[in-house]
TrEMBL record:
Pfam families linked: RADX
InterPro entries named among the record's database cross-references: NA-bd_OB-fold (IPR012340), RADX (IPR040893)
Protein name: RADX protein
Native species: Platysteira castanea
Gene assigned in the entry: Radx_1
A GO molecular function held by the record: single-stranded DNA binding
Source superkingdom: Eukaryota
Amino acid sequence: SKLTNLGHLEMTWRSRVRFHPLLVRILHKSRLRYYGKPEKKVDMPYQAYFEVADGSGMMSMVLWNSLCPEWYHSMKVGTVLLLDKYTIKTSYPFKTHPTPGDSQMKRFATIEISLNIRDPPTEISIIPEEMVKPEWGLPEVKYRFITRSELDDLPNNHSCDVIGLVTFVGRAERARKKEHSEDFWLYRWAHAIDGTSDQPFILELFATSQPDVFEHIHPMTYLVCTQMRVIQDLTENPSSTVYLTTSNESQIFITGWHKGQPYTKDAKVKNFIQWMKSQSEADQIEKTVIGGYYPFPRPPDSFLKY
């Protein structure tokens, strides 16, 4: 059928009501958001953001309400979609934006694609990877993997991806979202090593929309975390340790979930796998720890500094 592209949509969307089908690849995926309120009568008040791209650039796509339970888990990073009967809306100005792996990619930030169950009902098709043709010109998923030896030189809030062997995982803890609210964030601390430094990655992992992965992070698993943010706060405490925290677009993968993921082709991921092949499993198991209370960032060593 006759297709359009994201660049053409941005130029012509105001003058059209009906749009041609779109062929795009998912490059980023946000966590699922629940926006239900007692006074609003929406059956399934869910929403999820994706960043999708074709040969012309990248745009946000929003999945609404009952389409979320139906499609959210099938729409993975790297998935190719054929979309028809979607709508175009002006972008929501306060949403978070992931850092693209390809810094040269053009970003269409003024509008977003909206997928709804009605008015009109969007038609979504997933194209299997083996049927994707090179002439479609869809971009590959690119990453920004770093090693532990590179971490200390990165600025605060820098976005990156990491892979490592889990040596410690703490218990799940809760933090209030706001001071007096009844809503909590669920998170846990983990350490992962990659052989490039004596120090591990210290990871603050908030529960994303992947409970099956979050609950099964164990020592000795290969852990991949994407779209992590560097927390490097040297103003309060000059000796403080740098750590990484999840963002709204972070995805977490453990052993058993890596097959077929786009990052398996990345050079730094391949280097890590090579390093792991040279390690003795028994030696690494002796150094692993699970559970317990993990106070971090650590308080200063003396009461005066505190």
